[in-house]
Design a protein that fits this description.
heterodimer; A: 452 residues; alpha/beta; eleven-stranded mixed β-sheet
């Protein structure tokens, strides 16, 4: 018999609806997983002491006629996102002792549908930089190899989903913080289009670039969660509405030169991306190499906006609580002092022009694909604090443009997962999920799980 | 062109006190970011 913790969201919902499973049993199974694996993963930072009571409430809701697919489903929340009455520290001693007064908007929507908050999961400090091995709480570990990082900043969300603690968790993404840990840990990350999901109740890193979204075990589950947390569903096509559409007839631009010409890209990554493109072609999509605008310009504009806005967010806290910040975050915040208002204004002009340039490049294409990261997850040993370590990715351009992006597993390099991004125009979450689901259904990358 | 002393003054105005090692890392990051500013200016120039 399948452990309830391994049931997909749709299978769990069916069992709950049929009365062969209760939310309490499902939540206890998730708590058992946390008890068995979190000492290795360091994903969960705070359990919700009310989780079983919330599960009982969900069972009562279902008995009273609530039939929603998330009623009774446990989930975890990145510690950058508020959950009422739970600690909310953004992974920092600066906010030690803070308890969230209310739920973030995305959490409130899930709770209203009967989903059960299991607890909070690790984040890089203030979603900025990591792993910081000097912080009191140890960083989350990669479920595929505990000696390797998860990536971040949604580090605990990715470790929890890939490590089988829950089927989905909430994360945030300002420069790739949902997609890169999803790729490194071998799960699905879905960064919605800008403003589709409310950022209310999530500690801001850079409001112009911040996105809230799900990390999940599969594309279908990520799409379901995105629909559940979409602030105004009437404005958007449902992400899960075309999952059975397939990719037939879709014109997909393959942005290979954004990563394959970079010497940091591993041969296994290039091979896995080429194989993924070939698979989409076999499924009926037309795959054409595409030359996108200069990647470096996106990274430059994004970095300027991110550092300027991050410093603005922390100005008061730096003055009052500097001693409580981790060293890497303080250093990173200090970068922003090198910027003038004119620099930021120019970056915003560039942001608008870069958005238009991307749309122009996509003329004649429905979707884009490119690598999420250029390497598998690095070992913790690379982060010894003696020098800055870059983890090369190709994610921030779509924070700059605000387009929706899915990252999903496409294979392994040295036993560690690799990820591909599928990018659409604003509002095309349904198409990126359709393509991702079709790919996932005809490959076994998302079905593979680390052994514990 | 921002000098190291200018950068240190800006940090001081923020109330940000860094030890030598942290300041060296911050200064390196600041220079990288100034490079990004130049890159954006150059890209915008190609669009004019």
């Amino acid at each position: 018999m399948t452990d309830p913790a391994d049931l997909s969201l749709s299978d769990a919902a069916a069992a709950l609806q049929a009365g062969t499973l209760t939310a309490r049993t499902l939540t206890m199974a998730a708590l058992d997983r946390v008890a068995a694996r979190n000492d290795s993963l360091h994903a969960v930072t705070h359990l919700n002491p009310q989780a079983l009571a919330e599960a009982d409430h969900a069972d009562a809701m279902r008995a009273a006629g609530q039939t929603g697919p998330l009623c009774g489903i446990p989930f975890l929340v990145k510690d950058l996102i508020d959950v009422a009455d739970l600690p909310a520290t953004s992974g920092s001693a600066v906010l030690a002792g803070r308890v969230a007064p209310t739920d973030a908007a995305s959490v409130a929507l899930l709770r209203a549908q009967g989903a059960v908050v299991l607890g909070k999961v690790a984040t890089y400090e203030f979603a900025m930089v990591g792993p910081d091995l000097a912080l009191p709480d140890p960083p989350a570990r990669n479920p595929w190899n505990l000696a390797h990082i998860t990536g971040g900043s949604s580090s605990g969300s990715a470790a929890a989903v890939a490590g089988g603690l829950v089927r989905f968790a909430l994360g945030t993404d300002t420069g790739g913080s949902i997609r890169s840990p999803a790729a490194y840990c071998g799960c699905v990350g879905l960064k919605p289009g800008y403003d589709r999901v409310s950022r209310g109740g999530a500690f801001p890193l850079s409001p112009s670039l911040d996105h809230v979204g799900p990390l999940a075990a599969t594309v279908a589950e990520a799409a379901l969660i995105l629909d559940a947390i979409t602030g105004n569903p009437a404005l958007w096509r449902a992400a899960s509405s075309q999952l059975r559409r397939g990719v037939g007839g879709l014109r997909i631009g393959y942005a290979r030169d954004w990563f394959a010409n970079d010497p940091q890209a591993t041969p296994a990554l290039i091979r896995a991306m080429d194989d993924a493109a070939a698979q989409l072609s076999m499924l009926g999509a037309t795959i054409t190499p595409i030359t996108l605008p200069d990647y470096a310009a996106y990274e430059a504009a994004g970095s300027i906006i991110l550092h300027a806005e991050a410093l603005d967010q922390h100005r008061d806290l730096i003055r009052d609580k500097q001693a409580f910040y981790g060293r890497p975050v303080l250093q990173c915040l200090a970068f922003g002092a090198a910027l003038d208002a004119e620099d930021v204004a120019q970056a915003r002009i560039a942001q608008s022009a870069l958005r238009n340039a991307m749309l122009a490049a996509m003329d004649g294409f429905d979707l884009l694909i490119t690598a999420t990261t250029l390497t598998p997850a690095l070992p913790f040993a690379a982060f010894d604090g003696t020098k800055a370590v870059w983890t090369p990715m190709r994610t921030i351009p779509f924070n700059v443009t605000g387009q929706p992006v899915l990252s999903l597993p496409i294979g392994f390099d040295g036993g560690l997962p690799l990820g591909m991004q599928i990018i659409g125009r604003i509002g095309d979450e349904d198409l990126i999920c359709a393509a991702g689901h079709a790919f996932e259904q005809t490959t076994d990358h998302s079905a593979q799980r680390p052994l514990f | 062109m921002m000098s190291k002393a200018d950068f240190a003054a800006r940090l001081a105005a923020l109330g940000l006190t860094l030890d030598d090692r942290a300041f060296a890392a911050a200064w390196a990051g600041a220079q990288h970011l100034r490079g990004e500013v130049a890159r954006v200016q150059a890209w915008l120039a190609t669009q004019a």
